[in-house]
Amino acid sequence: MPELPEVEGVVRDLRPIVEGKTIESVSLSDVVYTSHEAGKQAIVKNAKPSQFELLVRDMKIDKLERRSKYIFFHLKKNDERFILVNHLGMSGAWFVVNDVVEITEEKFRKHIHAIFTLASGELLVYADIRRFGELRFIKELADHPPLLKMAPEPFDESACDFFLTQSEKPKFAKKAIKEVIMDGQVISGCGNIYATEALFKLFIHPGRVTSDLNREKKMELFQMICDVLQESIDSGGSTISDYRSINGGAGTMQHRLKMYGKKQCVICEANTESIVIGGRTSTYCPQCQK
Ligand SMILES: [Zn+2]
């Protein structure tokens, strides 16, 4: 799924286009409606589709913010403030167009699930091929408690200490280091791609038990994760699978990855191996990573 740098790229691209604009109306797809009737709640969470369409109407998009892998649309109506929380899931993508025919990639055009008509006349379109993404209208973070459990932003001053403290808790200390650094309650926004890269760069086997790493090594790993995330933000994120920036835009970090998706180690040329950790495939070099 898109990780912190990819979501940051979407927010940076979307911000100048939609901030300050008013949502005149919103229309959700038939798929969203029928899934709710079947009790499955595709895309739109915590509200019925018809309610959601009414709630968001006439809201001004005051500010866009990224928190971990979420996009927060801070909305305002008169003096009341709300947040439309979006998670891109596996393949969520945003477009700003005058007409949906401008969305050139058919796989996205065929899977449009929300069209926000802005007062400017533009359409803010959310497409999601696999429908694991979310749109959630809330008044405050406490309305969706998992949001309160998010680790601080990795670039915040407190984030490294938070990581060290969390990683020492019994619940995490006995787990594989890769599973721990990918947990949003330990570090915000680091998923499979950047966890794989950071561990490889420090020659740490992804299956190493967390308590096995001393404090210095953990601090070094935390810094490496920040470096890899920053490098990716600067490259516009990794455009792999169905990740896109807005309007189908692409980043270049996928060309800079050293281990994720590789068959051979770039250092020793050994064949890479894969193991499943915390339900995710983890690629590593059996020679370099111990
Ligand atoms: Zn190697």
From TrEMBL:
Residues of the Formamidopyrimidine-DNA glycosylase catalytic domain: 2-133
The protein's required cofactors: Zn(2+)
PANTHER family reported for this sequence: FORMAMIDOPYRIMIDINE-DNA GLYCOSYLASE (PTHR22993)
Source organism, top-level taxon: Bacteria
Positions of the FPG-type domain: 258-290
Subunit structure comment from the entry: Monomer.
PROSITE patterns per record: FPG_CAT (PS51068), ZF_FPG_2 (PS51066)
Catalytic activity: 2'-deoxyribonucleotide-(2'-deoxyribose 5'-phosphate)-2'-deoxyribonucleotide-DNA = a 3'-end 2'-deoxyribonucleotide-(2,3-dehydro-2,3-deoxyribose 5'-phosphate)-DNA + a 5'-end 5'-phospho-2'-deoxyribonucleoside-DNA + H(+); Hydrolysis of DNA containing ring-opened 7-methylguanine residues, releasing 2,6-diamino-4-hydroxy-5-(N-methyl)formamidopyrimidine
Family: Belongs to the FPG family.
Keywords: DNA damage, DNA repair, DNA-binding, Glycosidase, Hydrolase, Lyase, Metal-binding, Multifunctional enzyme, Zinc, Zinc-finger
GO MF annotation terms: class I DNA-(apurinic or apyrimidinic site) endonuclease activity; oxidized purine nucleobase lesion DNA N-glycosylase activity
Transmembrane segments: none
The organism of origin for this protein: Solibacillus faecavium
Enzyme Commission numbers on file: 3.2.2.23, 4.2.99.18
Protein name, as recorded: Formamidopyrimidine-DNA glycosylase
NCBIfam families, per database record: fpg, PRK01103.1
Family annotation (InterPro entries): FPG_cat, FPG_Glyclase, FPG_N, H2TH_FPG, Ribosomal_uS13-like_H2TH, Znf_DNA_glyclase/AP_lyase, Znf_FPG/IleRS
Pfam families (alphabetical): Fapy_DNA_glyco (PF01149), H2TH (PF06831), zf-FPG_IleRS (PF06827)
